[in-house]
Design goal:
108 residues, mainly alpha, 3 helices, 72% helix, elongated
Length: 108
Amino acid sequence: MGGSLDLNSVNVVLARFPWDSLPACTRSSQNVEYEVSGGSLGFSLIVFFCTAIVAIALLLFRRGQGGELGGATQGKWISFRVLIGLWVIFLILSGLYDYGQIPHTDAI
């Protein structure tokens, strides 16, 4: 259980770091205040859970085919690309939401 919690923490840090920390460091060096509005965590969690469901479904499908993390080379590369693609989707959607390109609603 601790290992999966640690991994989720790493994912959140890696996904949120570029969008929150780099602009803050840049503006700090220019002596300009940087404010991050709250409220984007709910959207990020929804995107994370959706991509996690797809990732788990992929692993279950691969397990049924005889190679969850092993198996045929072609299957491993397809799985690799899908999982990296899910991570990139998470990064892009979280960033677009944070910068107002995806409309904010009070429901999330």
